[in-house]
């Protein structure tokens, strides 16, 4: 009886110990997931959590903590600490013959080598080995992370198609295993890549799924990361309203998490969106907050971005000298930023808006030269990659030839039968060599084709608006402005007209029916405007709901007739927007160019500015009509100054002659 009780007691103690051990493993895994999600948003807090989690652990558990420690150190920019943690985790994986741990450590190590050390060859070797180990195991999250790492590396090397393929595989795998954290990781990168190549609709759809996952997981750091991804994707997709809303949500979450090391850049980006919406006061406050936080936490990149945005607001507030000083200093440290060319264009636009046209033109020219240099550099890198592949194949062929030459010399001492066998082997080798050359030729041809397609994609992305398909401001500065200065006219005659068009009550459409309805309206209006213009006319999406058209060689009478057609084309039939039948109208302002040589009259910026003033007059006069300057040759500097001060009064005083056009 005593023995039986002893045995039951021993079994109960064993079961209790096992249950507590299981609970401890679950707590450890949950803490590790939380630290992983915190690493990007609050890396300092994640490191503190990981340091506490590391105490008293060894073997596999210590290795897993070190892997996440390496990632958190990476996000803080601590290169040596990130390398040391990853290498120690690799050592533990090898000592314990733990392939999963080894693969995770290699992925973290490869990330540091690629992004902080810039050793792409070593990073590729580590990531490829890790992917092979992950594929042989059963850890779905690890397999997904390996595919994402391969995609990031491909994207960094300019292989966009390969990168998208890896991200698609990662998302499919994560969905098949019902792992929301792995899926969120894959969706973030897949959406970023799709937005980068202009596929706005699928990118935003992936972002919707990402935000839904993060919301359901109830991990604040994960949701903040998702909102940041949503904002960046919406901005690239040409949806500034959604980008602003998502960024404001992300900033609120970061403030609640006290993630000051991550706040500066989002605040600077929010300031940029406010500037685009011409809300300069809000932009200045956001930029000042970003600058203050960046200096407190030592975020150099955030400090440069915040200084740039604050300088832009100073320019719009007419403190041009101080604004230029801040912007020039910031841009000097942002030359490697992917948005550098766009920032130059925004800088030039701000200067032009406040009347510094000559300086703005210099900045526009600089943006063009930087953009061209970047395109040439990318082309050169692609060519060098092909050259390396060719050199590798050539070296392999030379080694093969040397090997067979030694075999031939040894075979000369053998019997005739061995000699015949050798000749057969040499024939086979020659055939293999020919096949290798043919294969290499096909690879080079395919690479050239891919390079051509990518160049065409880059040109389309840089010159076309993703929503409407119309040309954008970059195309205008690169192609229309030179055409304007060349002054070819039509049938050899000089002249031409600038039209500035704005959708009436567009904000109320967005507010009442949603941004998707607003997008439908913009697409329809763009299509109707384009259908009413000639083949040689250029239609630009100037910004938001505003469109600019340049009509070379058009006379004033032709411009008046065209305005009537445009007004009728837009308002003639309703637009079906998400089941709502909307009657949409536009207001138009136009200004012809003088008939004389371009260098003797006002420049194109002043003509567009006068068209903008006429557009404002059309708005205040009741909308759905056009106002324009009647006599471009009368646009003396004094007349332009009077129009700039008060166009309506200048017209009433007879200084500027205006015409009014309404629907036909």
From TrEMBL:
Domain annotation GGDEF: ranges: 494-631
Residues annotated as transmembrane: 422-441
Top-level enzyme category: transferase
InterPro entries linked to this entry: Diguanylate_Cyclase, GGDEF_dom, Nucleotide_cyclase, Rev_trsase/Diguanyl_cyclase, TPR-like_helical_dom_sf
Record EC number: 2.7.7.65
GO MF term (any one): diguanylate cyclase activity
Keyword Signal in record: yes
Keyword vocabulary terms for this entry: Membrane, Nucleotidyltransferase, Signal, Transferase, Transmembrane, Transmembrane helix
Catalysed reactions, as listed in the record: 2 GTP = 3',3'-c-di-GMP + 2 diphosphate
Signal peptide: 1-21
Pfam families cross-referenced by the UniProt entry: GGDEF
Protein name per UniProt: diguanylate cyclase
Organism the protein comes from: Massilia norwichensis
């Amino acid at each position: 009886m005593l023995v039986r009780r002893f045995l039951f007691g021993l079994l109960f103690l064993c079961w209790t110990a096992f249950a507590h051990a299981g609970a401890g493993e679950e707590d450890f895994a949950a803490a590790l997931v939380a630290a992983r999600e915190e690493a990007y948003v609050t890396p300092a807090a994640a490191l503190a959590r990981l340091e506490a989690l590391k105490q008293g652990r060894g073997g596999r558990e210590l290795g897993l903590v070190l892997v996440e420690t390496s990632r958190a150190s990476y996000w803080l920019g601590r290169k040596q600490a990130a390398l040391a943690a990853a290498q120690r985790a690799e050592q533990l994986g090898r000592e314990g013959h733990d392939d999963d741990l080894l693969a995770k450590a290699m992925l973290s190590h490869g990330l540091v080598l690629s992004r902080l050390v810039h050793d792409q060859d070593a990073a590729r070797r580590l990531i490829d080995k890790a992917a092979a180990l992950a594929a042989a195991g059963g850890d779905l999250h690890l397999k997904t992370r390996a595919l994402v790492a391969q995609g990031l590396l491909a994207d960094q090397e300019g292989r966009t198609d390969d990168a998208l393929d890896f991200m698609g595989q990662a998302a499919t795998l994560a969905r098949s295993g019902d792992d929301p954290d792995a899926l969120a990781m894959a969706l973030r990168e897949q959406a970023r890549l799709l937005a980068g190549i202009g596929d706005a609709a699928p990118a935003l759809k992936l972002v919707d799924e990402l935000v839904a996952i993060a919301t359901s997981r109830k991990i604040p750091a994960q949701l903040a990361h998702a909102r940041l991804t949503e904002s960046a994707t919406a901005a690239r997709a040409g949806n500034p309203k959604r980008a602003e809303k998502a960024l404001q949500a992300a900033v609120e979450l970061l403030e609640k998490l006290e993630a000051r090391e991550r706040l500066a850049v989002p605040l600077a980006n929010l300031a940029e969106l406010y500037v685009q919406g011409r809300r300069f006061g809000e932009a200045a406050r956001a930029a000042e907050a970003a600058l203050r936080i960046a200096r407190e936490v030592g975020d150099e990149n955030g400090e440069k971005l915040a200084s740039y945005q604050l300088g832009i607001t100073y320019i719009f507030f007419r403190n041009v000298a101080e604004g230029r000083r801040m912007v020039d200093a910031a841009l000097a440290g942002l030359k490697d930023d992917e948005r550098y060319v766009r920032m130059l264009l925004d800088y030039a636009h701000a200067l032009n808006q406040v009347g510094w046209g000559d300086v703005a033109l210099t900045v526009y020219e600089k943006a063009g030269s930087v953009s061209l240099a970047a395109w040439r550099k990318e082309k050169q890198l692609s060519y060098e990659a092909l050259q390396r592949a060719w050199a590798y194949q050539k070296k392999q062929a030379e080694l093969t030839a040397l090997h067979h030459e030694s075999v031939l010399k040894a075979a000369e001492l053998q019997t005739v039968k061995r000699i015949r066998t050798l000749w057969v082997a040499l024939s086979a080798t020659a055939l293999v060599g020919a096949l290798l050359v043919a294969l290499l030729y096909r690879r080079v041809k395919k690479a050239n084709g891919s390079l051509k397609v990518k160049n065409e994609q880059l040109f389309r992305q840089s010159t076309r608006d993703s929503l409407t398909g119309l040309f954008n401001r970059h195309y205008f500065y690169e192609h229309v402005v030179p055409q304007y200065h060349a002054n070819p006219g039509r049938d050899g005659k000089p002249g031409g007209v600038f039209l500035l068009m704005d959708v009436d009550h567009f904000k109320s459409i967005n507010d009442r029916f949603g941004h998707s309805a607003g997008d439908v309206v913009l697409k329809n209006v763009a299509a109707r405007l384009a259908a009413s213009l000639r083949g040689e006319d250029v239609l630009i999406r100037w910004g938001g709901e505003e469109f600019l058209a340049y009509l070379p060689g058009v006379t004033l009478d032709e411009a008046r007739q065209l305005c009537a057609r445009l007004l009728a084309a837009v308002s003639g039939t309703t637009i079906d927007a998400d089941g709502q039948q909307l009657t949409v109208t536009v207001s138009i302002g136009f200004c012809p160019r003088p008939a004389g040589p371009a260098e003797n009259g006002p420049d194109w910026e002043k003509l567009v500015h006068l068209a903008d003033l006429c557009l404002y007059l059309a708005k205040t006069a009741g909308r759905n009509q056009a106002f324009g300057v009647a006599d471009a040759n009368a646009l003396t500097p004094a007349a332009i100054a009077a129009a700039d001060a008060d166009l309506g009064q200048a017209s009433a005083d007879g200084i500027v002659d205006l015409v009014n056009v309404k629907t036909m």
